[in-house]
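Supplementary notes (optional reading)

For those who missed the lab, this is the record we used. Protein: Anhydro-N-acetylmuramic acid kinase. Length: 379 residues.
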Amino acid sequence: MLAIGLMSGTSLDGIDAVLCEVTGFGENTKIRQISFCTCEIPLNIKEKIRRCCANEKITTDLICSLNFELGEQFALAALSVCHKAGINSKDVAFIASHGQTIYHIPHAYGDCVPSTLQIGESAIIAQRCQCPVISNFRVKDMAVGGEGAPLVPYSEFILYRKEDEAVALQNIGGIGNVTVLPAGCTIDNVYAFDTGPGNMIIDEAMRKLYRKSYDENGLIASKGRIIENLKDELMKHSYLNLKPPKTTGREMFGEPFTDELLKCYQGENKEDIIATLTWFTAYSIAESYRKFVLPNHQLSEVILGGGGAHNATLKKMIENELPNIKILTQEDKGYSSDAKEAIAFVILGNETMHQHFSNVPNATGAKQKVILGNITYPN
């Protein structure tokens, strides 16, 4: 059957839409990518998302409206990938939409309980595309004691596990996250966690310092030098010492965090700042492996995905931090770095349609395996 996956991550670089043919479910899942596109989020909507994520000047009417505005944008992305493939959206069995994360609270603090909020109204998507929509994937995992993230590990278990080698899948979106697949693993052996910042701090600094949305191919970072004082400060960040399972997001590494760094180091060369922030992403990934992965597994390779996989300087820094491990990209494996997470939600949605679990308790901390997502049907 045909299915669409929609993904908009913390980097806010667009809505990824992938059209796939999927058969079977569970460990018998087979998937083939047919078409892919990334649709730009309009600037006014992107600014509203940033305000919400930064917990700044937020009103309830803003979030209420943004939920429906994003629903329209997700529907447009789904229709765009169908148009590119020359099919009618009515012929799609389902659309799996991650939604846009507005806020994520993995642990209680103050008067707040563990919770998460992804918006992008599924009823809008279902009605515009005239096919079922699966959304709100994270909440069921949190209902059974999990952190609601990461969810991608189930799909990586389906697609990448090996009988005789341990493999790590490192996604570098706005946030970095790793999935560890031990040699010959079952789903109960898989574990995953957020390694820390991915592109988020780099992209925010690029917007403030260069008025660009990102450092293309890591060109600016390649011209800079590491600022030792900033390096020492970043190495002491408390997140790096938290033990998995753990998750993070804009609430920790978003605009306020970057603004404070830029204020403190405003006298430094701009390219040096970008180089040091890029190094921090590489270091946070490698340090996570050194502390929480390599003591238990001898990795044969690390496969990079997400937008950060296109940053040649970042990839080189990761190679320098992990000199004895082969560092590859999704393209090296015949897949797409950009489409990876959208494909993951096709797989998760397929499990939901088959009434089959798709969370990984070792990754999220959930007390049990559960069926993820809500299903919205069109008229």
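If you only remember one thing from this example: The chain has two domains: 2-144+366-376, 153-333.
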